[in-house]
Amino acid sequence: MACIVITEWMPTGIERLHTAGEVIYEPALWRARERLFALLNDCQALIVRNQTRVDAELLTHAPALKVVGRLGVGLDNLDLPALRARDIVVVTGGQANSIAVAEYAIGAMIALARRLPAADRSTKGGAWDRAAFGSGAELYGKTLGLIGLGDIGARVAKRALAFGMRVIAHDPLITPMHFAAAELGVALMPLEDVLRTSDFVSLHLPLLPTTANLINAERLALMKPTAILINTSRGGIIDEAALADALRTGRLGGAALDVRAQEPPMGDDPLATLDNVLLTPHIAGLTVESQARVCTTVADDVLRVLRGERPLFSALN
Length: 317
Hints:
It contains 13 helices and twelve strands. By secondary structure, it is α/β, with parallel strands linked by helices. The protein folds into two domains: about 1-95 and about 290-305, NAD(P)-binding Rossmann-like Domain (Rossmann fold, 3-Layer(aba) Sandwich), CATH 3.40.50; about 100-280, 3-Layer(aba) Sandwich (Rossmann fold). It has a seven-stranded parallel beta sheet, sandwiched between helices. β6, α8 (about 150-160) and β7 (about 165-170) form a beta-alpha-beta unit. The longest helix is centred in the C-terminal third of the chain and has 19 residues, at about 290-305. The chain starts with a strand and ends in an 11-residue tail after the last helix.
């Protein structure tokens, strides 16, 4: 019988794992690293979200580990070379949370274009200021620029087109024959052209050495002063100090940030004081429906690996 350790929140799917053996579920275990090391000694499977650092140090305490399940899609908290060297399989939720993220991106665009968070705060404070909040913008006829046109980016594109938007994108891994480009009519452009042209820019790419601080002061300066930036990917893709400066000085219209370089942000957060910023705690991919899909998908793939079968959503080929 196997031993499976779950270090973070997993609202469903655990009952499936009990069929393989002992399940240790402690949603805050990622904070207690020494205890985690002790539990991993006889563990064959480990399931995490984005807080648990699965690095070389952790792997030295997990001699029997066969599979790591990632409840989501980002892999920046996993030491992939170290896992590959040990022939440990990594499974993910595949595209199970893509709909939730795509809907969040559209919702964030509407919220900021119509200044809904600020209008809500004002009205709850006793005001009834139609003049101040009656000058919002429509999505119809505007240009959405997608940085990253993978599964999530394509889903955002489809929804934006339904609003009557023009959609353009930059993705060096995508060709004109990709579904979103060939059949949805998304125009592929260089990054700088997307930034210059777009009324909204939405980021959908992984955090890699090549994408860290991709949206820096120089690239923010290319954007329209009325443009709105949405980030549901990883916080480190944006230079947050440069973003705060651009927003504060009116060189950018607004930003919706679901992810941050430091989660949660430490100390005084300059972005939290700005009315043209929508901040949420890394929830774009979290809905009741998406979590059911993610947890079930990961649990089933972990069980496949433990049975010696090939998983459906492996991150290491």
